[in-house]
């Protein structure tokens, strides 16, 4: 067998002291929900720190749980047995089975996120950004940036609000970009050990380009693809890329527009631009694709859909089966809302198998969006489980990255001009100059901290039926990662087995997310 080293990341419960370099303990606070938040201020914030590979023949484990563990670490010895396996549940790694490679994890720098981050003192701002982006943080490498206003803004605006300005002579970034989002993005990039992948999404075209003459509600672009409105809207994207480039911020990708299905709904309450899949196909083929290709940013990826995955595979089939549109497209962007209505293997899996050359990328998710479960819930472990369940499900159906929504919100879940309040992994209390790291922050961390860009999903199977959910990856350095979620109320005993390396006996406590890590070098 060729030499390779193995790092398995699997979340496991432990009461032992944190063994990570530079680690700091959570200052837990209860707000009446199922678990705790970790409180941070200008001088202190908990951190897992760096997570080096353990010594040969040992493993590291990391735990987050409803009981209050937050990325707690311990080490143990890898077991080598010659008399067969122990009875019970076994998870077997199969690195020969290879699937998609990852691009990364992240969140969105909305106007609301920027407002909340900047509402803190300079020291607390630095702590918050470090939690996401520094080498001591959780490894975010993707930042979604709304092009002009969305519902998580305090006002309605675009960058070209002058009627009839088809040449975009008056195109101008907003104060929200120049004074808030751009400075924060530059600070995040400066502390990140790798280049950040910026992703741009627009919510609405200027009102004068649209059939309803408004940024909100049911409305599409005037005219037809290839016409002057459609070409102006494509050039709007290029102007956005040009203006941000003046600040040395370049975009890895852009989407064809946030939730195009929303703009087809009568009385839709906030910014939207309606596209049918046929209209999106033709706009990419005739306008957006050629505009990007002939611009100074031909390397910028174009992602279609940027809407709920239940629209797949139909939407992708309409757009990608057309060679004129498909040649400009790199991937399909999906949101997590309404995921429970269609099984992932039918939406995501089918799309991958139909069009394997186009990657699937998660571009938006948040808790607290549904009518019966709205807004911020400080300390909700159920929402952490929702995140981990969805990420594992997505990864196991060929998704290459997962992007959370607002990086930070206030305690009401805003600001949001239409009062569409939701939750966030980081909630800011500006009055006390503190911020709270929600259970969802740690749920994301179990993926973003350990699954580096270029990690490749590999096979893993259970020896019997189990409520455990899991996914496995080989990282670029040859180490491996296995993430396990236990949403049940039972403690589950199991072992992890790689035929070339040995066994790790594991305990998945009730309501926990488990991460195991080990490094073994084979020299023969």
TrEMBL record:
Main location per the UniProt record: membrane
GO term, biological process aspect, one: regulation of TOR signaling
Pfam family, one: Glyco_hydro_30C
Domain spans labelled Glycosyl hydrolase family 30 TIM-barrel: 103-451
Protein's pathway: Steroid metabolism; cholesterol metabolism; Lipid metabolism; Sphingolipid metabolism
Gene Ontology CC terms, in alphabetical order: lysosomal membrane
Entry-linked SUPFAM superfamilies: (Trans)glycosidases (SSF51445), Glycosyl hydrolase domain (SSF51011)
UniProt topology in membrane: Peripheral membrane protein
Signal peptide: 1-22
Top EC class of this enzyme: hydrolase
Reaction catalyzed: beta-D-glucosyl-N-(9Z-octadecenoyl)-sphing-4E-enine + cholesterol = N-(9Z-octadecenoyl)-sphing-4-enine + cholesteryl 3-beta-D-glucoside; a beta-D-glucosyl-(1<->1')-N-acylsphing-4-enine + H2O = an N-acylsphing-4-enine + D-glucose; beta-D-glucosyl-(1<->1)-N-octadecanoylsphing-4-enine + cholesterol = cholesteryl 3-beta-D-glucoside + N-octadecanoylsphing-4-enine; cholesteryl 3-beta-D-glucoside + H2O = cholesterol + D-glucose
Annotated keywords: Glycosidase, Hydrolase, Lipid metabolism, Signal, Sphingolipid metabolism
GO terms assigned for molecular function: galactosylceramidase activity; glucosylceramidase activity; glucosyltransferase activity; signaling receptor binding; steryl-beta-glucosidase activity
Coiled-coil residue spans: none
Protein name: Glucosylceramidase
Record InterPro entries: GH, GH30_C, Glyco_hydro_30, Glyco_hydro_30_TIM-barrel
Record family assignment: Belongs to the glycosyl hydrolase 30 family.
Domain Glycosyl hydrolase family 30 beta sandwich residue range list: 454-516
EC identifiers of the protein: 3.2.1.45
